[in-house]
Structure formats: structure tokens, C-alpha cells
Specification:
392 residues; alpha/beta; 39% helix; single chain; 2 domains; 8-stranded mixed sheet; 11 strands; Rossmann fold
């Protein structure tokens, strides 16, 4: 498993009040990076070559292997559907944001940062080494970076008999269902086009890294697709659905099949209270007592100790079901006209300044028209008075 510096510790207390995005970014930069941007040096032995390959892959997935690293942020309240998305370059100490998985990559394929990728690799290596039964699944994949790492780790270990399942709508998040899940009424990410990555685009990323074989895609919103996977056996389940609804549905559908010794990994547990609320409620309802362990500032996991019932359906049956669901259209899907260009932070600043100047110009012109209008009315009144000889 992880080295001592990456070993998770128990989560003893709930996260306090949620900071704004600006405050959180500033705090991460102030605290600094938790890991160097380095891949292990290659050597002639197979294990060193494997570690070097996976280390370089993780840097590439986070867009930390090149000369520049571009970030995407949301202006104002990040929970407001209309919040402006903009891009900027991370320089100097700001690279800590990417290293720690505290921003959205403009070009990278994973948002989760190096520590969570390191831990995910360790979990995959552990279940293979210990013979924990089952495939691996990520529910909420975005561009597919974490799943690419899972597939690459399996391939580097010769574990090609295991399948990596990638479950996502590939159309962004659904609009909140306030009736069924009132917990999500203040968290609406459905209008954020940046989070909607088409299936064919994600498949191309897997192929680009040589990780296409041994992958099964499950496209569609979780309420439409994940119940069909309920009876499968899993060794690693990674959840990254953000909302209460997505987290609850994924746990309800996938946790029953998690093998003893398998890992349940949850992103955003410590940052998004809706996600944390779903996890805590599910654990209470199902009497889950295995301790939650902290991976980093945002991710947690636990390892299942109890043995689940035997699966009633095999993977081949589930693949047939997922293919039949592939073309379903949900009424909760947000229609999109394709990815819009993302303005830079400087472009937003210039647009704001121009807008301010326009308002000042319009305001000044309006005031001038009003002044002239009032002067005209006074002049007419005075002319009228003069024509009457100035009498009262």
C-alpha cells in the first residue's frame, strides 16, 4: 500500500463550514504542495520500469508533464448555475492547486491530483497482490483520468482478466431532483458545460494511452444504469458523483457487490456536504462500521471487512444490459450546443472593465439627457412667463 507519507489517517470530525472557492484556493496555495512533481527514475529491472511508467502517466493525467499548466475556475459562488467559468495559468506556488487536486484542469484528464492518484494506484496493486475478487469501477469519471490509471496499473501487473467499468452520463450532471433528494436543492451543477465530456471523446483518451482494451463504458445517469450492475462483484469502487443523489445511488447499487478486502473510495467527501451526508446516512442505515480513512484534504476510503452475498449475475449479462441502456435519453438531461470557448481570467477582467465603462458612459449620457430635458422645460416655462409679462 501507500508509503508512510501517504498512509491515510482516521477521519474523526466532520468538516466545518464550507469556504468559498476563492478562500479554498488561497488556503491551498498558502499551505503549499504535498508532493513533488516528479516521476521515479527508470532502471533496468521490471518493477522500476513499471513505477516510472505509472509515475509519468500520473503527471500526464494531471497536466503536470509539460511547460505550462492551465487551470479552470468559477467566478463568484461556485454553486450558482450561472457562475462564469474562466481559465488562467498556474505559476509558481499556485501549482500546489493541481498537485493537490484543488482545481479543474483546462487540458488534464483528471481533477483528483497526485496524492489521490497515488493512493488509487496502491489500492489496485493491493487487491491484485492479495487476490481480492472482482472488477473495478469508477462512477463519475469526467475525462476518465482515474479510470485510465486503474487500467494502466492492472496492465502493468498482468491482471488483464479484470475489467475496468467507467460509469458516467457523459453529458454532465442531471438537474437536481428536489422532490426525491431535497438534500441537493442548493447544489446544481447541471448547467456547467465544462463537466460534460462526450463518450467518444473519453474513449479516445483511453485509446491514446493504450488503455482501451479491458474497459466497459456505462453511459447514462446513475438512476438509469447503475441498478443493472447491482449483482456484480467489485474489488475497487471509486465514487465521484459530487451530489447526494449520485453518491447514494452509487452506494446502493455497487456496495452490495464489493468483496471483502475491497476498497470503497469517495472523492469530495470532505469538501461537499451533500456527498458526505449521503455516505454517512448510507453507513448508518446499513450498519457499516469499518473506519473511514483520510486520503488527503478531500478524498476518503474504507476497506470492506464483511463478506457480501454471492452475485446473482455475471459480468457478461451486465454488459448486455449496459449496451441496451446506452442510447436512452433522460428528461433530466440539459441540452447543450457543444463546449463553449473558456475565456481567460484577463479576458474576464477586461470585459468587466469595459462593462463598467459602458455603464458609466450610458449613465452619463442619461444624466445629460435628463439635464437638457429639465433645462428645456424650465426655458419653456420662463418663455411662457415672459410672454405673460412676468405676472404672478
Amino acid at each position: 500500500m501507500s508509503s508512510e507519507s501517504n498512509t491515510p489517517t482516521s477521519v474523526d470530525e466532520a468538516v466545518t463550514e464550507r469556504p468559498s472557492e476563492e478562500e479554498l484556493r488561497a488556503a491551498h496555495v498558502d499551505l503549499g504542495a504535498t508532493r513533488e512533481v516528479r516521476a521515479p527514475s527508470p532502471a533496468t529491472d521490471a518493477e522500476s520500469l513499471r513505477a516510472a511508467y505509472l509515475g509519468l502517466l500520473k503527471l500526464s493525467l494531471c497536466d503536470l508533464a509539460g511547460a505550462r499548466t492551465l487551470s479552470v475556475s468559477r467566478a463568484g459562488d461556485g454553486r450558482t448555475p450561472g457562475s462564469q467559468v474562466f481559465s488562467r495559468e498556474l505559476v509558481g506556488d499556485e501549482l500546489a492547486l493541481r498537485i493537490k487536486g484543488a482545481d479543474w484542469p483546462f487540458s488534464g484528464l483528471s481533477m483528483i491530483g497526485l496524492a489521490r492518484l497515488d493512493d488509487l494506484q496502491s489500492c489496485v496493486e493491493s487487491v491484485v497482490a492479495e487476490g481480492v475478487e472482482g472488477d473495478l469501477i469508477e462512477a463519475g469519471a469526467w475525462r476518465g483520468g482515474a479510470s485510465i490509471l486503474m487500467r494502466a496499473t492492472l496492465d502493468s501487473l498482468g491482471a488483464d482478466q479484470r475489467t475496468v467499468w467507467v460509469a458516467d452520463s457523459f453529458r454532465g450532471l442531471p438537474a437536481p431532483d428536489a422532490d426525491a433528494f431535497p438534500e441537493d436543492r442548493e447544489l446544481d451543477l447541471s448547467r456547467v458545460d465544462f463537466l460534460a465530456v462526450p463518450l467518444e471523446e473519453v474513449k479516445e483518451y483511453f485509446a491514446r494511452f493504450g488503455c482501451a482494451p479491458g474497459v466497459e463504458f456505462v453511459p447514462g445517469f446513475f438512476d438509469e444504469t447503475l441498478p443493472a450492475l447491482r449483482d456484480l462483484r467489485w474489488s475497487v469502487v471509486r465514487l465521484d458523483g459530487d451530489t447526494y443523489e449520485s453518491t447514494w445511488l452509487a452506494l446502493e447499487s455497487l456496495y452490495p457487490g464489493l468483496s471483502s478486502g475491497g476498497y470503497l473510495i469517495i472523492d469530495d467527501y470532505q469538501l461537499i456536504e451533500e456527498c458526505r451526508g449521503a455516505v454517512d446516512a448510507f453507513r448508518r442505515e446499513h450498519g457499516i462500521t469499518e473506519p473511514i480513512e483520510e486520503i488527503d484534504w478531500n478524498g476518503v476510503r474504507w476497506r470492506r471487512a464483511s463478506e457480501p452475498p454471492r452475485p446473482a449475475r455475471d459480468a457478461a449479462d451486465a454488459r448486455q444490459v449496459s449496451r441496451r441502456l446506452r442510447d436512452r435519453h433522460s428528461e433530466r438531461a440539459v441540452e447543450r450546443s457543444g463546449q463553449k470557448p473558456i475565456p481567460t481570467q484577463r479576458e474576464l477582467e477586461v470585459e468587466y472593465e469595459l462593462s463598467r465603462l459602458r455603464r458609466r458612459h450610458v449613465s452619463g449620457a442619461v444624466r445629460e439627457r435628463l439635464r437638457r430635458s429639465r433645462l428645456g422645460r424650465w426655458a419653456a416655462w420662463l418663455r411662457h412667463r415672459a410672454g405673460r409679462g412676468g405676472g404672478g
